Amino acid sequence: MRAIATVCLSGELPDKLEAIARAGYEGVEIFENDLLGYAGPPEEVRRLAERLGLKIIALQPFRDFEAMPEPQRTRNFERAERKFALMKTLGTDFMLVCSNTSPLSLDDRSRVVEDFRELARRAHAHGLRIGFEALAWGRHINDYREVWSIVEEIDHPALGIVLDSFHLLALGLPTEPIQRIPGDKIFLVQLADAPLLDMDVLSWSRHYRNFPGQGRLPIESFMKALGKTGYQGPLSHEIFNDAFRAAPTQATALDGIRSLILVENMVPNAEFFTPIPQAPRYDGIHFIEFTLDEDSEKSFSAMIEALGFRKVGRHRSKNVDLWRQGELHLVLNFETDSFAHTYRLLNGPSVCAVGFRVSDPELAMARARAFRAPVYHGPIGEGEGDIPALRGVEGSLIYLVDPETAKEKQWRQDFQLFEPEGEEAGIRAVDHLTYVLQPTQRLSWQLYYRTVFDFVAGSEHEYADPRGLVLSQAVTSQDGTIRLPLNVSPARETLPGRFLEQHQGGIQQIALECADIFATVDRLRSAGARLLEIPDNYYDDLAARFELSDELLEALQSRHILYDRIDDGEFFQVYTLAFQDRFYFEIVERRGGYRQFGAANASIRITAQAHARARQLRY
User: Fold this and answer.
1) Which residues on neighbouring strands pair with residue 193, listed in sequence order?
2) Does the CA dihedral 293-296-298-304 come out positive or negative?
3) Quick one: pLDDT at residue 379?
4) Cβ neighbour number for residue 110 with a 10 Å cutoff
């Protein structure tokens, strides 16, 4: 059973239950604070859950219970009896009891055993069950192995253990002993991941948990150990995260479902295993589609022509042009009755779609449907190719193009092609595309690409903008041919912040790869391309940081090329001015296996872009 705790989501309790049901969960844990803040009686919550087809699998948490002195001990059993009555009203038979954090609690194992034996007896008399969970910050008990030894000693049918991946993995506890716990004595499994942060575990837990697949904890190790127990109960999310509390409820609930499907597939042949299609192979970005109006056509065409792109086709029935350089195609869509037009009304001239080259689009679509990715079906004209597509960031499209179609079939079928004029500039393909997202959406889209496309999430990088901080994390196809940095900034006046405020987000940076950046930049300049100027001070610092020849330094400085080196890998990058203060191009060359994105140069590049913007230098 797939389940989620209401604490994971933003909004009021009815809104949470509605979103949970729509996302496809079968069960829900009612977090006590959500119930206490609800204006109606508990019976209404039960009826709403039943109407939505949700099983309330738990009431949680019951805190500060075991090994308390009097009079707190007596009060705790009275409190438990009240919760038992509430559980019956809600229609759930299970309550989660977390280990005591009170400074009043006694370090007395015999008292812990005595208290839980009595609580189990009382729960059993009501036909209910209780589960004991070790909090990572429990005062005397913070290890699931200690909890299991207590549960095993008491040996009561109404008492079991609750395993929470965060509490276990955050402390670095071994997962191997999980295998020796009988599956029928594990009453609930809660799942949470987290980034690796150097902070106290309570703050880490309360603010930075995320769904498995979004963090860095060894969730797979936990799941593989769980898979050997024979556990057949619910897999449930319990996430405390500030961004989740601010994010749209439905989107977060859907992320949770994707995460559960991901972890279910970590353990083939386990009781909870649900097979999904494997990801196909990817082979880079085949095309980028821009939505443009007639007013922007001339300036944008001049911009890409100066970059070495050549116009090679005109759509047979639509107001759409095709440009090409190397293996990359740019589609310029000027239609006024189309998806592109709708996207342009919301976002202005922008990138509205990209095409991924993929070995098996049908397999990719089957996997996408398994992970609940939204599919796009647009109108297809007579004789036109039908390319499968998914919804991406800000409602943009991701087309999945098979090898045969990617060769020439797509263009010859839909376009009148002709011999181009002019020379190319040495650009071969897309190196990466950088998206700007709402700060609350980064984890969501990171998980989307990891699950739907089986991409790998890189490390997070923070860099300074003159007006705030920017956080960047890249998702990359397994073979490295598709790279998509995801940028967010909480500050509205940063470069990504302004783009988000003014243009709703989406692709802000289009990085193009070449074989010889010096020759390419020379061609761009001779063709009139307008490139971003980098201050001379940067090159003085570059000479201090790296042992570069005077000749190379001069070649970089005279062309305003930025440089980075990691081990034996080198990275060269140069930028165009922004198009209408919206998006811009970057030209890069990689040498020696360099796999990053020039993060060391991000701050100076953004500062130079801010200066250019202040001087109104743009296309």
Assistant:
1) 210
2) negative
3) 79
4) 9
In total, the chain counts a number of residues equal to 619
Instruction: Provide the residue ranges of all domains of the chain, joining segments of one domain with +.
Output: 2-264
- Element spanning 322, H or E: strand 320-325
If residue 123 lies in a helix (H) or strand (E), which one and from where to where?
A: helix 109-125
Q: Encode pLDDT of 325-352 as tens digits.
A: 998 999 999 999 899 999 999 999 999 9
Q: Which two tokens stand for residue 145?
A: 């192995």
| Rounded (to 5) percent helix, strand, coil in the chain | 40, 25, 35
pLDDT tens digits, residue range 455-475? 999 999 999 999 999 999 999
Which distant-in-sequence residues (6+ apart) come within 8 Å of 191 by Cβ?
164, 165, 211, 212, 219, 235, 236, 237, 238, 259, 260, 263
Angle at 125 between CA 121 and CA 130, to 5 degrees: 55
DSSP string, 413-477: HHEEE----S---SEEEEEEEEEE--GGGHHHHHHHHHHHS--EEEEEEEEEETTEEEEEEEEE-
394 phi/psi in degrees, rounded to 5: 55, 30
Q: Cα–Cα distance between 355 and 387 in angstroms, integer?
A: 9
- Could you read off the pLDDT of 191-216 as tens digits, one per residue? 999 999 999 999 999 999 999 999 99
- The SS3 assignment for 258 reads helix
2-264, what's its fold? TIM Barrel (3.20.20)
Which tokens in the block code for residue 165? 């991946």
Contact 355, 401 (CB under 8 A): yes
- Cα dihedral angle (197, 203, 204, 207), rounded to 10 degrees? -120
Mean pLDDT of all residues in 286-308: 95
Q: What does the alpha-carbon distance between residue 583 and residue 508 come to, in Å, rounded to a whole number? A: 4
